[in-house]
Amino acid sequence: MSLALATTSRPDATGAPFDVDAVRRDFPVLAREVNGRPLCYLDNAASSQHPRAVIDAISSYYETSHANVHRGVHRLSQEATDLFEGARETLRGFVNARSTREIVFVRGTTEAINLVAQSYARPRLGPGDEILISWLEHHANIVPWQMVCEQTGAKLRVIPITRRGEVDFDAFLGLIGERTRLLALSHVSNALGTVVPVERYIREARRRGIPVLLDGAQAVPHLPVDVQALDCDFYCWSGHKMCGPTGIGVLYGRESLLEAMPPWQGGGDMILAVGFDRTVYNALPWKFEAGTPHIAGAIGLAAAVRYLQALGLERIAAAEHELLEYATRRVEEIPGLTIVGTAPEKAAVVSFTLERVHPHDLGTILDHDGVAIRTGHHCAMPVMEFFGVPATARASFAFYNTRAEVDRLVESLHVAREMLG
Amino acid sequence: MDLKDLYRDVIVDHNRNPRNFRPMPDADRHADGFNPLCGDRLTLYVKLDGDRISDVSFQGDGCAISVASASLLTESVRGRTVPEAEALFSTMHRVLTREGEDADPAVLGKLAALSGVREFPARVKCASLCWHTLEAALHSEAAPVSTE
Could you give the ipTM of this predicted complex? Predict the structure, then answer.
């Protein structure tokens, strides 16, 4: 099971830990200062930073090989096409999909889910049908389903969560049923960091012939993901949370399902032949890629994959787990601080509230010390509502963060407490 | 830029002990303000005696800047006429932005404590939410106000 690594690995179990100082030198932005202090970037769940290798891959493409893809016979167009399709192969390998036909480039997780909602779900749903999601979901895995429910008369059902921030498996067993047409689950919660043991859910769904979509936006940066081992039908993720560029992401889809789905958007690149009476659509995956794609984005994302693979996904997971344990222990020492989301398996996310200090004030006070965290509802308003808080502060760690940075977070939290608490 | 410019003693005090923080069942006017991104939420109540604001109170939940700003607002507009309150609203708007550097401290009174907010552009919306909500209450607007 691929996810076990996230919680059981230690650096000594998977080879020597990497040299974090050397890794930090790979990320140019980490050398900058904010308000006279070295940047302490703890907002990785919102968007991660870029190693030089990604920035160089993008610049090199623009400097030497840019042209439109899948069109010209001229040299640059061929080079751009090779780089773009080569990136697709890299992404295929990253999640172990069977074929590049199953790897569709999209703008990000949000677009991937909307594509599945409109192209897979909408034609198949009718009144009385149900889509099942959980209370943990990011808005991107709620709103597209609400829209398709409005369009078709289907109903959205929501699996409750526990006080620790885990999806309630027993409640799930009571909700999945004859009318369930799709299960759409977060692999890792963005607001709380909960790693959802999706294998159990997928097993139950597949036994009933119900397809499963996983929102992997928070999972791919932290855990090795194998879509064949998971046996899910759709897996969606974004480039910019795994050291890649914004505006690029991937929809993995089981080939038989993608094959049966109509195109979502029409235009160039997604067709083989166009006439006013009839248009023949292109083969997979291009059928779902209308218009000139984000070529540089795909190339940058592939460079990010190579960078992460060279570091070792297991070592990354282990390093982040160490940071999570250390940060959890340190922030728990602060009087009046409550961690929101205490599932036994978590990605490196610590969401919390501090008595008498609003998260928004925390954000400003920490920023003054050069510490960047996210404050607010994290695009997961139902999660905030469940815990009865308007917002939380969230520190989210990447493999390039250090224990010293956790200490700076804690130090700034004490400042905030003294100032406003 | 010093944090103490933002979190001045007056602000910290009004956040810890907000004034006129209560519901007003017999209010003549009320309006809701809500900034969903940061989670600031308040309801502002106004009692009118003709053209004069005879009582004003608020309830809600938010950051120190939004709570202190609402608390200071209630102290500043009580007893004023509606046109006077609206003039103060436009003065505050200038105080919270660069244009307000020449605002007269005598007119502002304690509200001057909020002038540090202009150095923190991301927080201007927190300080201005209650003022826009007051404006909505005075004009009996039903839809919740937002400054995001």
Answer: 0.90
